[in-house]
């Protein structure tokens, strides 16, 4: 009887530890398509000296389409288009972007929590650690999100986007 009690206690201890480890490693898969909807609407940001950027995102299928422009002293200095959708094969949001006069840019977005996301060049999707830059984004509220871009060997650059009502 004396031997049975310590063995039982050890077995219960291992059972509890195993359940605790499993609970910590199980992660709920984020619904990237639903989280993408946070970008819908009209946004503005400070795009440089005397320049304001504007972004307008509308639903398009299960993704979104966006219009971008930067305005200085009432004059459009650049504009572009975006199309973003979910690719279930890589569990990422893929964005194509064309700024008039420039080549197409492909980006991979992925939410890491309900309000935080990361952006990397699409070409680095299979090896994000090797990306020459990364952008960390966070929705601070339904009317504000902040993106911090980190380029290797340069100080981070932070941009705040505010909803236009």
Describe this structure in words.
The protein is of the alpha+beta class and 165 residues long. The chain has a single domain (32-163), classed as Calycin beta-barrel core domain (Lipocalin). It has helices at 4-25, 32-36, and strands at 41-48, 51-60, 63-72, 75-87, 92-99, 105-111, 116-121, 133-141, 144-151, 157-163. Strands 1-2-3-4-5-6-7-8-9-10 form a ten-stranded antiparallel beta barrel. The longest helix is centred in the first third of the chain and has 22 residues, at 4-25. It is globular, with a radius of gyration of 22 Å.
Tell me briefly what this model is.
The protein is of the alpha+beta class and 165 residues long. Helix content is 16%, strand content 52%. The protein starts with a helix and ends with a strand.
How are the elements arranged and paired?
Elements: H1 4-25, H2 32-36, E1 41-48, E2 51-60, E3 63-72, E4 75-87, E5 92-99, E6 105-111, E7 116-121, E8 133-141, E9 144-151, E10 157-163
Antiparallel strand pairs: 1-2, 1-10, 2-3, 3-4, 4-5, 5-6, 6-7, 7-8, 8-9, 9-10
